[in-house]
Structure formats: C-alpha cells, structure tokens
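## Example record

The block below lists the input lines for one assembly entry, exactly as stored, with component labels intact.
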Amino acid sequence: MENNKDQIRQSLVSIVGEENVSGEIPDMIPYIRDSYSTMMGRRIPLPDFVVMPETAEEVQKIVLLANEHLMPVYPRSIGANIAGSALPYREGGMVLDLKRMDRILEINEDTMTATIQPGVTWGQLRKEANKKGLDIIPIGGPYQTSPVGNHLLTNITPYSSKYHCDRAVTLKVVLPTGKMLRTGSWASAQGGDTNPYFRYAYGPDITGMFRGSLGNFGVIVEMVERLRPVAPVEKDISFGFRELGPCLKALQAIERLEFTRTCQIYNNMLAAHLVLAPHRIKEPGERERLLAKMPPYQLGIGLGGTEDMVALFEKIALEEVSKHGGYPFQLEPELESVAKGASRDIMHMYAPFSGFAAVIGCLPITHVAEINDIVKDLVKKYDIRDPISGEPQEHELIVIPYDRGSTVYVEQEILYDPAADRATLEPVMQCLRECYARIVGQYGASHTIPNKTLMKMLVPSYVEILVGFKKMVDPNGIMLPGGPYSLE
Amino acid sequence: MLADYRNTIYHCLKCGACRHAYEIYMPICPSGMKYGFDSHYAIGRISLARAVIDEEVKLDADVMRRIYTCTSCGACDEQCHDAVGVDPLQVIEEFKCEAVEKGLIPPEVRDYLKHMNVYGNPYLLPAEDRGKWALNSDIEVFDGQEYLFYVGDVGSYDERGRKIARAVSGALATAGISFGILGEKEMTDGNEINRVGEKGLYEYFATANIDLFKEHGVRKIITLSPHAYNAFKNDYPGWGGNFEVSHYSQVLARAIGEKRLKPEGTEGVRVTFHDPCFLGRHNQEYAAPRQVLNAIPGVELVEMERTQKNALCCGGGGGNFFTDLLGSGPKSPGRIRVREAIETGARIIVTACPKCFNMLDDAVKAENAEDRIVVKDLSQILS
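Predicted structure tokens for the full assembly:
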C-alpha cells in the first residue's frame, strides 16, 4: 500500500511539481474541517494528498491517475468551506485545491460575461468587471468566495430580482473519467471556442446538471459567468414594516411591476447583525439599542437606470409600500453593501461566534410566514438560546424573490457558539434536522443535492436519474465518495 | 497556553477572509502566497491549533514549520477582525510560545534565539561594535538630550542598516533635534524575540532596557525601526517602561510641519511607499512617511494597489528576517512586492524600516530589476 502511495505521489509530482503536492499531516489537517462538520462532531479522515494544479490539463491528468488507482477525489475551489460539501470523507483520498487556478480568462463586454477559473473570487471578478462598466450579478455570498464554488453549491442566494438566479452560462468540466466536457454552445467541437456564450444550445441544459452537484460529476475548470451592466444611476432604498405578512405582500406587488434591480426582506435580528461589526455586537446593550430603532421587518430595494427612471421607480416603490403599511426607513450603509453583493458585511450575519445553522428553502411566497413560524416554534421547542444574551433566541430571516417572486429564497439562521459543549450543541443539531424535515416534507423547499436523509423524501424516479447520471459520468465512483452529499 | 485561546480557535468560520484583502480583492498573506497550502494561511493555522488542543495531532517541529512561516504582519487580523471578529495572529503567536516552551521549534528559530541569548544580537558580534556606525561623526552619546535615538540590531550591525542610521541621524540633526545614542550600551529591543515566542527572553531584554533608559534619564525615544517602536510603545509600558516613543518618520513629519526641516528639491522622480507592517498595520501610522514624501519638491508619490492597511508584507517580520523560513524564489513576498512596485511606474521604492529595506533590496537584485527600480529609506531620499 505504501509503495502504491509513493508511486502515486511520484506521479502527482510529475504532473504539478514537488511544491504543489503534499502528503504531510500538517498540510492536510486544514482540509478536514469546516463549520458544519465541527458542529455535527464529525471526524473526517485525513486524505493521502493535497494537490494544487494550475491548469485544466493538470486536472485532467490527476483525475486519470485517480481513476487508475481508484482514489477518491475531493475538489474545492477557493476553499471557503462551511457546510460539509468539500471534505475528504473517505480515507485515502486526494483533496484537489484549485486556488492556483485563479485567472479571469476573458471579460466580454458584448456578451456581458466573464470566463473564469475556479480559484477566482467574487471580489476579484467584480474588480475586473467594474473596469469595463460591468458588475457581478448581486449575490449574498461574501467577496472571498468563488463563483464556481457557488455554482456547484446552489448558484442561488439571488440578491437579484432583475436577472435570472442562475448566472452560469457554460462550463468546461473535467469529468471523473478524465474526459473534457464543454456545455451549451461551447460543446461545438469546431465553433465552441468562438461562441461559449449560449447556455441553451444542443438540447437539454447540461450546464444545469452541474448546478448544485457539489462536485459529484467532475471538476469545473472554466465557467462563463453572466455579468450585468452598471446603470448610470444605482440607488438602494429601504422600507420598514411592523409585520411580516404586509411586508411580503408589498414585495410581491413591487416585483410584479418589474422595475427593481434587487429586492430582499430582512427581519430585525438579521438587519441588526449585518449592521453591527462582530466586535460591536458584543458590547453590552449595543444590539438592543439598534433593535429598538429598527422596524421588525425591512424591505430593501435596489434601483437602476437613468436619473429620471430611478426617481420614478422610487416614487412607485413608495406608493406600493404605503398601500401595505410600509414606510421609508433610512438604509444603513452595511445593508447597502450587502445588497450590492460580494461584501464583507454579509459575514456579520454569523456573528458574534461564527456558529450558524442555516435552514434554507425555496418556495411560494405564500408559505414564507408558515415556515418562519415553523423555525420559530422549533427554536422554542429545543430551547435554543441567543448566544449573546442567553435569552430565548429569535432567529434571523431573509427572503429574496426568484424570477419576480414566482418563488422566493428563504434563509433562516439559528445562531450558536461553536465553542459550547456537546450538550448545548446537540439541540441545535436536532432542531436543524427537524426544521429541514418539516420544510422539505411539507413544502418541498430545498436548494441543492439533498443529503442522504432528505434523499429518502424524494420520489424514487428523481433519485434514479441523479444516481444514474452519476454512474454514467463517474463509473468508478471516484468523485466525492462517502460524504452526506455523495451520489455513489 | 494555546488552550486558553479555545474560543477564538473555535470561532474561526473557515471562510478564508484571511487570504484576501477586502475592497482591493488581492491576496494578502505572505506565507500563503509563497506556499499555497492552507496550512500556511491563518485559516489553516487555526485548524492546526484546534487539532492540537483537541489532541488530534501532536505539536511537533513539522507543525511548527507551518506556524513559523507566519511573518506576524497582521494582514489576517485586518481582514478577519471586521468580518467575523476573530484575530488569528494572537493564536499563531501563542502557538509559537507553546512551541518554545516545549522545545519544538525549527532549528532556524533555535539558532536565532541562541544567538540572541549568547551575543545579544543575531549577528554574533560583540556589543562594543554597536556604536561603530556613528564613529567619525558628530553624533553624541546620550547625556540628557531631549531624545534617545534608539538604533537597534539592524541599524547597529548590518551595513545597509548602518547607512540608514546615519541618514536618519543626519535628518534629525538638520531638523535641529537634540538627540544622543547609547552606543555600545544599547541592547536589542526584543521585538523579534517576542514574535518568535520566547516571552522570557523578551522580558529579560525589555526590563533591562527599561532600567538602562531610566538610569540614563531617558524620557523621549526616537526609533530607527518600526519593530523597536512597536515594542517600546505597546509592550514596555506593561513592565513600567513609560516613555514617549516616536518612529523617526513621525519626528521628521512634525519637523517639516513646523518648518524646522525644509527638504531640498530633487529632479522629478516617481516613488512608491512600502508600508512597514509594524509602523502601519500594528500601529496605524500611515500618514507620517507620506507627509515627508509629499513635502519633497520633485517627488511624485504613487501608491501600490496593496497599500496602507492592505500593504503586502516584505516577508521580514515575525523573526523571518533572521530565520529565513519563508525562503527565496519568485513567490517570496519581497519579490512579489518589488514586481508590484515596478507596475506603478515608480523608480524608487521608499520604506521606513531597515528590515523592509534589506528584504526589498535583495528582492530587486533577485528580480534582476536594478535598472528599473531601487530601494531607499525615507531618510535617504531626504538627504
């Protein structure tokens, strides 16, 4: 076995060079942890190697080698790894750290797209796009995360109501067999490189098969990502509401008028946490003072266009909001930066202790109040306490419309202190499981490849297709085996 | 003990904010940029700390090599503090302290500490040589002047450092500032000893320095190095060493503001300023050196993209100037910094730290860029 390991190491070194392969324990430990595995008390085995390729060809050679030795492969883009999706669950695997693949290969002003590698961050992409009068389509994720990683996770958290939530156009993927796949119009053997800009070419949407696949189907080595034009005037405004119901109604009414660029609802707990930097939130009374000033719910709207357009949109928004009892409320700069996407302030939602259990689902707006109540009740049932005050916890809530509000993305955060003992963390875990069982069971509200528990709640034919596709592209089952999101 | 930082360690979100500077969206960790593996970024070092306190891995020399490539530049804290409220550097430095206590340090660190212990300096030279840089000059030995000019190890022993010490002395004299030096009586400030985790030896030198300063009636100190400035300003008060401490760039900026120093004009030259970590991020002094540069007729200051709080470390902090655990090569932070400076179109990289000066000067040579850019200390561009 050791000889085999030595041989694999030598082969890896010949592909990526000595300095980009490690089998040393201190180099591998950082790759076996993330926020959720920690909460769940899960022990992840050490991989045999961490490898850092720089090119698609190197990735191809590594995957071929892994096939030859039936070695599990766990790719990660920039490695902002939080929810257990990129951990090497099976012993003897190889972590493919793609952060060296950090080049923006093209920003095309005509098609308003960027062709990027997996190690490119949202912030890096925004900076380069801005130089050409373009911007990223707003996302909820922070600046240091990766658009490719985001596509593999869900490609949602859409802070954008104007643009379709799925921003990936086409992909270049090293399949688990080592073959190179190109999707959409990029699939054309001759003309693909001239036109990789159309997603819906040549039949079914294969780009979409990789959305939310969490690395099960291969390694994305290039992605064409949609960008948006920066409007001459862009303005974010905010309205306060005393109750969730009217706030949701106002959002629905506004979305049907089709003039917003971004749109989102926060409850006051989330808004307060976003505004307060982590060190401020720990100051006694600081959060309470802010909460006292804030409305229970805030509806934030991003507008864009000419000066006249924005003035008109603002007037219309105010009229619609007023019909539902809303009122203008001064938008804090932190919330404005969150709405623009790829911010640092978005990280404050996990403050002060970085422990969060996210209950995420997408469903019709008419059920939002119900699932908000479900989480509220379960937080109460499990007696989850606020990690700052020790009082019963009020969870964070964000609602963002998809496709003008046909459905909405709902994220509810239950906060905890990861340094707490198991007895304190266990109820959080149980609460999270029950929240998911309820909202998926009753409302079908999920957003990515379901874990093994949730898989049992799906119709068998759906699971057969997912698993069948996996078997087709990964006959040796080398990609991502063993974890909660594995399709083996 | 590392275990005392359990909460900080457990509160790391594993989000990677420590790798990239917000707003400019560029890599910011010098050791991570050099080695690439997460183990050389704060995110990985915190994971290692957690594995140690959870007894999943032994604290040994292999682990510590990943910890000691950290240059204590504070860039990770700058990012993480405002993102999720964690300050990774204090964990990394506690890691080093624990390794020193357990004797599990890399040989390079061991040798550095041995030299400091035996010789009182990392150059293995006698204390009598400390004041030699000032021979044949008008520089006086401290005897009640307004300021003590504290030169430190690099300014005292290193040839390039000595030139900087002479240039600073010249500028101070031109500004009419009354100062003296301790010469052979001067001792190391200990900042690097502290940064590699030898708290006991640091305390020994710090208290000895405090006694020495008090014995000589020192009340105000000007430091050549930002590292000494950091030690005197932030740590020495904890041992009763309360002195009015300034970095020389601050004194010169004040002198220019009060019209006591009028920099001579120079032929039009474009310069860029490299912020030393222990002047900038650790002590928030970004303005003084720029005030000096902007006061020199003919000097055009252009900024690198990674500047001020987002400045990229030269690689010389955290004892690495002496231990060289980061090593050389095109991915060494000094060379990356030089390439970044060249991109601005500047002909001179100005800095205000003898360690940064040496790191960057070596990097210019390694890049074969002597015909495109040179390194100068702030004091040298004045003279």
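The longest strand of chain A covers residues 219-229. The mean pLDDT of chain A is 91.
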